[in-house]
Each structure stands twice: as C-alpha cells, then as structure tokens.
Amino acid sequence: MVQKPKTGRRSIQRLVLGMFSVATVNVAQASALEADTHVISAWNNGASLSVILKNTGNEPIDQWEASWTWPGEETITYTWDAQIIQEGVRVTAKPSDKNLTIPPGEAIAFGFNLEGPNPNVSPVISVTYAGDTDTIEPSPDPTPGEGDRSPSDPTPEPPTVPETPSTDGWAVPTNASVEYTVANDWGSGFMANVVVRNSGTKPLEDWRVRWIWPDTQSITYIWNADFVVEQNSVTVNANGQTIPPGQAIAFGFNASGSGTPAPTPVLEVPGINTVEPTPPAPQQPPATVKDVDSVNQILGTQTVAPHYQFTNESKLVETAEAIQSMGSNILKIALSPQAYGITDANHLEYQYTQLLSEEPSFVQVLNMDFAHYFFWVETAGEIVDGDGLNALEAQREYQRLYDLTTYLLETFDGTGKTFYLGHWEGDWRLLNDVDRQWDRSRQDVPEDRIQGMIDWLNIRQQAVDDAKTNANVSNVDVFHYVELNLVESAQPGWDRIVNRVLPYVNVDLVSYSCYDSTTKIDNEAELRQRLVTALDTIEANLPAKPGLPFERRVFIGEFGFPLYNLWQYNDAGVEQNRRAGWLIETAMDWGTPFILYWQMYDNEYDASLNSYSGFWLIDRYGDQAPLYDTYQGYYQALDTWISEFKTTFGRAPSQAEIDDSAAEIFRESSGSE
User: Fold this and answer.
1) H/E stretch holding 482
2) What's the rounded Cα separation, in Å, for the pair 266 and 277?
3) pLDDT surpasses 70 at 212
4) Which of 204, 446, 465, 591 is the most exposed place for a label (fewest CB within 10 A)?
5) pLDDT recorded at residue 496
6) Does 3 score more than 80 pLDDT?
C-alpha cells in the first residue's frame, strides 16, 4: 500500500504542485507563443523557476518579451539566459544572446531565483513578439505602495570596456610569477583563484595580470582586485597593492561558462619586451561519432571498478571492448575516473560534462558502437546530512544534470544513441547514516531524508526534461532513472524507496537491483514468483508518465549469482548460468526493457576466501564463464532473427516486435526450452 509522506521538515510538495513535476503554472499565450512556468526548487523563503517559451507557429519569432507582475514583495535575486529587469512588482524578460530567435515548433528557456514571503507564487506570464497582433497583457499593478520596492540585489552595471590598452612599457619579470587555479567548475560557471608571487628581493609595487579567454567566459564577481575587459581579454591591475619580497597576494572570481580550457595568464611589470598572453588551445572535439544500430537487445552488462585487466588500455576501454566483442550494444558505466584507476583525471570527479568531453578513455568509449549507455551520476550523498536537499544543493544538482544532458544531446545528435542517467542502489542512501552501513533491518527513516530524496530525484528529472525541451536535435535521446534495491522489506510497511519515495517522483524509468528477491533462490518457481511480485510492486507505485517509448518502465539494473554462494555445486559456473537463465526468461516474459548483469570483470575480492566473489563474465585468468557463452549465443540468435525478419517482411522489425520475441529467442539460443 502506498504511504503518504509523514509530517516533518518543510515539504516541498506542499509548496509546489507536482513536486517539481512538469506542471504548467498560469499559462498565457500570444497568437503563436506559449509560456509555461516550472518550479525547479522551492524552500521556506525562496524558489528557483524556469520559464519555457514555445513557438507554436510556422515562422521564426524574434524580439520576444515576457512580463509579469508580482502580487507582493517577491524579489528576483539571480537570473540566467535572459535579460530580466524588475521595477517594483513589475518584471520584464528579454532575450539573451543565445536565444534571440525561437524557430517554429521549438522552445527556449530562461530562469531565475526569487525571494519573498510567498515563494510558491504563480505569476501570469504575458508574452509578446515582433509582428504579434494578439497580445495578452499581464495583470495590472496592485494598489500603489503595496509591495512596491526595488530589488535588494539589483543587476550590477557591466564593467566599463576601456579603449584598447597599449602594451608598450610592460615586461615579464624574472623574479615574480603568477598561478591560476580553477577551484570549482559546475559546467555553466566556475570559481578561480589567482596568486601573484614575488620571489625577488625588492617590493613589487606595480604589476598587472592579463589573460585571454574563449568568448563563452566572463567574470560575474571578483574579490581582492579590480578588472577591465576588452572583448575576451582580461586585465587585473595592482591598484596600489604592493607585494613584499618573498610574499604573495591572491585574488579570485566567479565566472560564467566552463573553467576549461584554462588560460595562460601573463604577469607584467613596467619595462619593455612585452609577452602577449596567448589564447588557450581550443578543446578537441570528440572523435567522429558513428551512427549506430539503435535496436534494444534487452540483455546487457556493465563495468564498474574492475579489479584486473589484461591489456595496456585503461580498464574502462578494455572492459568496454570486451563487452562489445561479446556482441552487446548496451553499456553501463560509472561517470567516475577513480572507478577505473584513471588517476590523472581525478580532478574531473563530479565534473561530468568535462569528463566526457576531455578524458580520452571516456571520449573513446562514448564513440564506440554502443546504442544504449547507462551512466551512474552519483551525487546522492547530499541527502544524508541533516537538512535533506537544500536550495544551493538543488540548484547545483539541476545545473549538473541540465549541462550533462545538453552535452549528450548536442554531441551525439543524429547518431541513434540513447543515454540513461541514474545512480547506484538508492535504498542504501535512504537507510544508512554516515556511520551506519548496510542496515537492512532499519524500519524508519528520517523525514528530512525521505523528502530530500524526493526533491533530489525530481530536480534531476526536471533538468533532463528542460534540456530535452531546449535542444534542437534528432535521433538521440536521454532518460533519467531511479535505482532501488530493497523491495521485499517494504512489504511490512518499512520505509523504502518503493513505498516512501517512488509514488512522489516524476522519473522516466526505475532500475531494480534485484538481489533481494533472486540471489539465494535455488528453484525456478520461487524465483519467478518473487521477482514478478517485486516488479509488480514497483510498477504499482510508479506514477504514470505518458509519451515515453517504453511499454513498461521498470528494468533490471543489476542481477547476479556470485560463485561464493554456489560452492556446494560441482560446477558452480554451470549452476550460475542456469539460475541466470531463469531470471532472464522471467524478466523478458514480464516485459522489462533492459536486463543488466553484474558484471564483465569482477569488482569484489573477498580476503577471507582469498578469492574473488564470482561476479564476472570473464574471470581474472581471462576465462569466459558459461553465462558469457549464453549471452553471446543470444546476441547471435537475435541478429539472425532480425535478418530473417527483414528477408520475410521486407522491413526491419519494430522494437515492440523484438520485445515480443526476445524471450523465445533466448530460450532457443540457450537450450532452456
């Protein structure tokens, strides 16, 4: 039975209709321009909102303008992707450089943070554009004096752009240096620190630091320094700051855009022989992206933190190539360089877009002929603290997922690839405190944590949905999923994702890591009954979401039968293969869109047994498990079936036709009929 959230910390679902679901809020419409408002996040005295403008006409729309009137003392404190001006209670938004024109049938989005006594206010957005003759005016201003105040944090004036400065009379010193470090990069912005160090014997009384950026970067806030800009050139002057011998001064700034590639700053002092700063080398585009056969084979595997390898390739590339050689077009990985021992990319941990665009192993794997990629995008640890998901965490999470989704859509436009963004076994995040691990017996979970996970999942889904709305792409897609792993223990009413979180989130898909209902079962009938019951329970608690290309939205994200549980059998590998066959047939008969085995190379070494746990398709000696042969036989049989279908019917089978036949193809290829 579905349980409603208990009372406790502020409940965002009380503030926001649909709890971050794609809920339309007070839509206004001009003749060919619609406006939808979506709440990204809300807290006690503030909220983040996204406004989507869609061109429903047949002609491009430019010179658009959106306006609305606050009912009280709401104040916009931060904006993105639009020029927003607030005068008292009246707000006007105009295009930024990136969304001047809205093509027919497409949409753009902008957003803002607000503060005020009524953060869940629903403004009526009025939209106009050049040539429109059917404008809807916003509500008139309230009685003068009611809520009529200027923003507490008005948009600062842009820095003055000076005349082109002369470089005559400046030189690079030999007894001083400059260091530039990106302290944090969240994709759409970053924070950097700059240190100017005097290694000489005399005070450094007059100096300046200059660098050149790509056009996408600009300083939004600076401390301990002043700056001037000319196009993409930045100059920071000493302004009377003297650096004594052997000492240093530091300044820092926040900037829009990506922190990479980092510029090479030049420190100069009065003199001659100026060294001009050079622009950073442009980022290398990914290798040529191939079109792929986008058929969903249903059966797949994954590679996360493999413990051994046999080649000089990175563990990520080697295991991905092994999965591809087996015949699979499905790959599941962790977006973590540490998971594959790529130590020179540790600075890209949690920098997902940079990781996929810059780190060679990840770039190579994304350009392999896989059609379906599952990514662990792990940030759920933030909900374990004492305040659920706070406003800053929500905004950061939204931007991470929005930027990642946008990158995937734009980079792989037209390739036939599909990406699935999720995480690892979420019930452990729900149950375990920082100092409590694997507590299966826990019945009650703090309400802040339950609400935090609801917020976390909804903000991620909203980011994916918004990015897809704004992307002008085709034949590529991104979906978002939640992974749960304790379903059976929810039946007595214990707090688990399936009954306390899932009914209140808007996710595309659910991944079930199904060890609790399958791992230690030694007969087919019981395994089938318990797995089907668990899948039915998950589906019953999953809110409907029309428009998705899946007949059923629950898949097997992990399954496995470790050999250490099968020690009593003469050939544990054969028994492992037999039980895996039961599970695969059951899941295919039920209709799961994916079934993913854990995993290609083992990631678990048990010191007490002096052996690996036995989660592998290829063991540490390079030998293939019987289940590897079962997988490979299924892929070959599926290819043959598709080829024969094309010959017989003169067309490729639909995915629904493949889904309907997959279980029978597996039975025939594995000899389990």
Assistant:
1) strand 477-484
2) 6
3) yes
4) 446
5) 96
6) no
Which residue pairs from 225-233 have beta carbons closer than 8 angstroms and sit at least 24 positions apart in sequence? 225/194, 225/251, 225/253, 227/159, 227/253, 228/159, 228/160, 228/161, 228/162, 228/165, 229/159, 229/161, 230/161, 230/162, 230/164, 230/165, 232/279, 233/277
Cα dihedral 593→599→604→606 (10° resolution): 100
pLDDT confidence of 470, banded at 50, 70, 90?
A: very high
3-state secondary structure 264-287: CCEEEEECCCCCCCCCCCCCCCCC
Give the pairing of strands 61-62 and 101-102.
Answer: antiparallel
Rounded alpha-carbon distances, angstroms, from residue 94 to 51, 83, 121, 425: 12, 5, 21, 43
Which range is most confident: 74-78, 138-142, 250-254, 632-636?
632-636
CB 55 within 8 A of CB 105: yes
Cα 668 to Cα 419: distance, rounded to the nearest angstrom: 30
Separation between Cα atoms, residue 236 and residue 252, nearest integer Å? 11
- Residues 15-41: what's their mean pLDDT? 49
Question: Do 417 and 373 touch, CB atoms closer than 8 A?
Answer: yes
Spell out the residues 6+ positions from residue 20 whose beta carbon is closer than 8 angstroms to its own.
12, 38, 39, 40, 41, 455, 458, 459, 461, 462, 506
If you write DSSP's letter for every residue of 298-337 in order, what string do you get? SEEEEESS-S--SSSS-HHHHHHHHHHHHT--EEEEES-G
Helical residues (DSSP H) of 412-544, grouped into ranges: 426-431, 447-470, 497-500, 515-518, 524-541
Question: What is the sign of the dihedral through the CA atoms of 411, 414, 416 and 421?
Answer: positive
- Identity of the residue numbered 200: G
Least Cα distance to 28 among 136, 140, 120, 141 occurs for 136
pLDDT value for 56: 83
Are 478 and 405 a contacting pair, CB within 8 Å?
yes
Residue identified by tokens 């990319």 is 345
DSSP E strand stretches across 327-476: 330-334, 372-376, 418-422
- Rounded to whole angstroms, the Cα distance separating 612 from 606 reads 6
Mind listing the pLDDT tens digit for each residue in 134-160?
A: 443 443 333 333 333 333 333 333 333
pLDDT of residue 594: 98
pLDDT for 132 beyond 70: no
pLDDT at 316 over 90: yes
* DSSP bridge partners of 46: 43, 115
The full DSSP string for 110-128 is: EEEEEESS-TT-----EEE
Cα 465 to Cα 150, 247, 332, 487: the distances in Å are: 33, 50, 21, 27
Cα 460 from chain centroid?
A: 7
Geometric angle at alpha carbon 315, from 311 and 316, rounded to 5°: 130
The pLDDT of residue 572: 92
- pLDDT above 80: residue 303: yes
What is the value of pTM for the model shown? 0.62
